[in-house]
Amino acid sequence: MEKRQKGLLRRHLLRLIRVHHWVKNGFIFVPAFFAGQLFNGDTIASLVLGFFAFSLMASCIYVINDYIDIPQDKLHPEKRKRPLASGAVTKPEAHVLIIGLFAIASLLGVAISSTGLVIILTYFILNLLYSVRLKHIAILDICIIAFGFLLRIALGGVAGKVLISHWLIMLTFLLALLLGLAKRRDEYLIFLKGKNTRKAIEGYNLEF
Question: For residue 180, which of 6, 33, 142, 150 is within the disulfide window of CB 3.0 to 4.6 Å?
């Protein structure tokens, strides 16, 4: 029984840190790919380090966001099933997880370089503000998400020791912005049907 409970907790923790979202951090490899350095031994090792550093910091933010949203999520028909809202993961367990993820991500950032650490901490601070307040402000919410992808590209440049072209910066930001707007459009259509969605969606419309 105890082994089964540990297995369930492990599963809930993996859901909480959103491992399936780590694929977004594949953008870290993009600068080295276009520079033709992706399969260089030293470069790929540093990029993998950057990938896990960014992924763990992003997971830290996911946990903080879910922690902040516990009261609202408990009232939502789907979100109430989330590990923290459902009580499958307790608040003290979440505290330990947040500290652990932040510490490991920061140490990996230091292993890359001081600039790498600054990029990762910038992502943390920006997304902490997003979780607390900025996600409720239309347009600014998707701009912050798009900027997060620029930080991934920046970390890829630093870890891979390659220059990032202005074209790559612009294309990354615009692509992230386009995907963000497409998602908000879908959410707005759901909002029009009278279903619950994010607060910022009230600032959007179909003529946008």
Answer: 142
- Structure tokens belonging to residue 77: 């028909």
Per-residue tokens: 31: 């600068």
**CATH number assigned to the domain comprising residue 190:** 1.10.357.140
Answer whether residue 208 is part of any domain.
Answer: no
Q: What are phi and psi of 189, to 5 degrees?
A: -65, -35
Which helix or strand (DSSP H or E) is residue 5 part of? helix 2-16
- Domain containing 113: what range? 2-203
How many distinct structural domains can be found in the chain? 1
Per the CB < 8 A criterion, the answer to whether 47 and 39 are in contact is: no
pTM: 0.90
Q: Tokens 């995907």 correspond to what residue?
A: 179
Q: What is the CA radius of gyration of the chain?
A: 18
Residues whose CB falls within 8 Å of the CB of residue 102, separated by 6 or more in sequence, listed in order = 57, 60, 124
Taking the CB of residue 85, how many other CB atoms lie within 10 A of it? 21
Instruction: Tell me which residue of 90, 93, 92, 65 sits closest to 79, measured CA to CA.
Output: 65
State pLDDT tens for residues 103-122.
999 999 999 999 999 999 99
The enclosing H or E element of 51 equals helix 41-68
Q: Could you report the per-residue pLDDT of 47-75, keeping only the tens digit for each?
A: 999 999 999 999 999 999 999 999 988 88
